[in-house]
# Entry
Amino acid sequence: MDSPKTLLAAINLFSDPENCRQFMVSVRWPNGVVRCPTCGSEKVTYMEKSRLYNCRTKHAKQKFSLKVGTIFEDSPIGLEKWLCGSSLRQRMGSVRMSFTDRLALLKRARGSCFTVSASQ
Ligand SMILES: [Zn+2]
# Structure
């Protein structure tokens, strides 16, 4: 999956948790095969409801999310919000904008990114 080219594209893309999942998978596992962060096994099942993976090898922490082993791991914030936020920061850093414009953009982005499911 390609990185979104514009902020709007990022907001649209990452407001869907399934897109976030696919994006994270493509970033972490370029061959698209998700591996268990504990034992490295490829025998993992994705549980759509809980948005968790379950390793079929018996060990502690069989269930894991895509945040495990990343800088997002300890955050209670959902992945889609992180991806949206980091995309936002990238765009803002590279564009010359007035403070008011930045504020307006932030408010809009927050409206889209941060109203996404609170179910995580
Ligand atoms: Zn495992």
